[in-house]
Amino acid sequence: MPELLQFLLSGITVGAVYALVALGFTIIYNASDVVNFAQGEFVMLGGMITFFAHAAGLPLPLAALIAIIVTAAIGVALNKLAIEPARGAPVVSLIIITIGASIFIRGATQLVFDKQLHRFPAFSGDQPILIGGATILPQSLWVIAGALAVFICLWLFFTRTLIGRAVLATANNRVAAQLVGINTNYVMTLSFAMSAAIGALAGVLVTPITLTGYDVGLALALKGFAAAMLGGMGNPKGALVGGLLLGVLEAMTAGYVSSQYKDAAAFVVILAVLFAMPQGLFGRKSTDRV
Amino acid sequence: MLTVEGLRSRYGRIEVLHGIDLDVASGEIVTVVGANGAGKTTLLKCLSGIQPVSAGSIVFRGETLTTVPAHARVRRGLAQSPEGRQIFTNLTVEENLRLGAYLFADDKVERDMQDAFAMFPILKEKRNLAAGGLSGGQQQMLAIARALMARPSCLLLDEPSMGLAPILVAQIFDVVKSLKALDVTVLLVEQNAFGALSVADRGYVMETGRITMSGPAADLIADERIRAAYLGI
User: Fold this and answer.
1) CA distances (Å), B113 to each of A169, A195, B33, B137, B168, in order?
2) Considering only CB atoms, which chain B residues are within 8 Å of A29?
3) Number of domains in chain B
4) CATH number reported for the structural domain that contains residue B143 in this entry
5) ipTM score here?
6) How far apart are CA A110 and CA A117, in angstroms?
7) Which of A241, A231, A238, A206 is nearest to A220 (CA)?
8) Residue of B210, B159, B224, B190 whose CA lies nearest to B17
9) What is the pTM for the complete model shown?
10) What is the spatial distance between Cα A186 and Cα B65, in angstroms, rounded to a whole number?
């Protein structure tokens, strides 16, 4: 039993990371139907900038705050310099632009910072906490709490605020959104800033556990994307559940079968779910009349 | 209130509006009638700002709007109810209406919504359903109601009767007529020339990107050429 609990706890930790990345996808997707493949780079930037700001002598909370703000600014720049000029292009072209942006950010990070792996101290020490014979790192609790907090904020944002509905309206029908007075360029800018900030927050939270380096973003983006697809793209609830499910699946496979098969097992389950429910577990059904 | 001079617009290299002159006085219902493809919808899109203008000017309440972006024109009191299915299909009817009043966050929003429900009771019945599931006529009503939520001083109506059952067409034109009592100036674009001219004060006839006739609606309805070309009489 302690074994199962241990796998479950580490699965939830990893899953919370995937959930945070998946939540980052949600906003830009909701505003524009674009899956932003540079989302993983935002996570990487969050960790890298925090590390270098901390190494330069800033206290950790301040370094983290700077990292989140700078990353949000980079997200805005990505929208202004690469996405907005291509307005009117098909969604697929925009997605390819984000892939290009991700490669660019990775290269630029290598030049500006370095190619080493980095870590900064955990927020509440490294002493594992014992739970029923299994252990969990205090930092894992931070990651899980971060994922829950971001989920709650996003859920409130999309269901309780007018600007949140304006984001949904912009994705649904950009022309109609303009006709009711929504500044759709502003909505896009806001979405990129929020997505990038959520990504950076994820990077800040996980770096003490997983380390960070210029190239960690790609793998995170892929897993986060898989989690978002599993839960249903665009739905914060789907991102959270999809992320946690994917993490636990991986941990169980690694624990009871072999760690070599953990990615394969996870993706087989995702394929099976999408085969039965193409919209994902919580995906929105399209109800358009034609 | 609204003055358009020498308005030209193009899709790529093809010019579709060849210099439109038109004016709407405060409190009037003015209609632009014409056949399919005459450029009526393009004209409205230029006025609401979602179609670029290549020459000419749009002056609304003394201010030149020609380069003002679409969302900012709504703020100035010029709202469009777009043609066809331009509603937020994945949001509920109520959310669509609330977004119509996107620029406002006061108590009047709720009253305006009750007014909209009074005007179109079917929308009240379906307030919590996704707008994409409404019938074509109900979507059209929602588009008009949503535009009214923006508290426009001038409402641009694009083909409100298109694709509707005759009984609904009559209902829609009644609504247009009733806007006069609410102090809303209306520019109505319609293929249904007879219906539009019956509720309008003045009318313009548009053919292939040009205004070919204009005058009081009663005169246009009586005009032999219009009766032959548009009214099928």
Assistant:
1) 18, 33, 30, 19, 21
2) none
3) 1
4) 3.40.50.300
5) 0.90
6) 11
7) A206
8) B210
9) 0.86
10) 20
Nearest CB to A181; choose among B71, B98, B130: B71
Q: What is the CA radius of gyration of chain B?
A: 17
For the domain bounded by A2-276, which CATH number is listed? 1.10.3470
**Residue A132: which of A259, A245, A2, A34 has the closest Cα?**
A2
* Cα–Cα dist A113/B220, whole Å: 74
From the list B91, B103, B134, which residue is nearest A181 (CB)? B103
Q: Could you identify the residue written with the tokens 């929504």?
A: A182
Question: Is residue A45 within 8 Å of A203, Cβ to Cβ?
Answer: yes
DSSP, collapsed to helix, strand or coil, labels residue B204 as strand
DSSP letter for each residue of A9-38? HHHHHHHHHHHHHHHHHHHHHHHHS---TT
- A280: left (phi > 0), else alpha (psi -120 to 50), else beta? left
Percentage of residues in chain B having pLDDT higher than 90:
73
Q: What is the average pLDDT across B104-133?
A: 93
> Which pLDDT tens digit goes with each residue over A109-156?
999 999 999 999 999 988 999 988 899 999 999 999 999 999 999 999
Is B102 an interface residue toward A (CB < 8 Å)?
Answer: yes
What integer is the mean pLDDT of B126-154? Answer: 93
For chain A, say whether B128 makes contact (Cβ under 8 Å).
no
> Are the C-beta atoms of A158 and A146 separated by less than 8 Å?
no
Half-sphere exposure of B206 (CA within 13 A, CB side): 29
- Cβ–Cβ contact B74 with A under 8 A: yes
Residue B102 belongs to domain spanning: 2-231
Phi, psi of A48, rounded to the nearest 5 degrees? -65, -45
If one counts every other C-beta atom within 10 angstroms of the C-beta of residue A98, the result is 20
Q: Which position has the token pair 């705050």? A: A65
Highest mean pLDDT, choosing among A61-70, A84-93, B154-163, B176-185: A61-70
Q: Are B132 and B86 in contact (CB under 8 A)?
A: no
Distance in angstroms (rounded) separating the CA atoms of residues A199 and A44:
8
**Residue A109 neighbours by CB under 8 Å, 6+ apart:** A41, A44, A45, A48, A214
Long-range contacts of B216-222 (CB under 8 A, 24+ apart): B217/B31, B220/B33, B221/B194, B221/B197
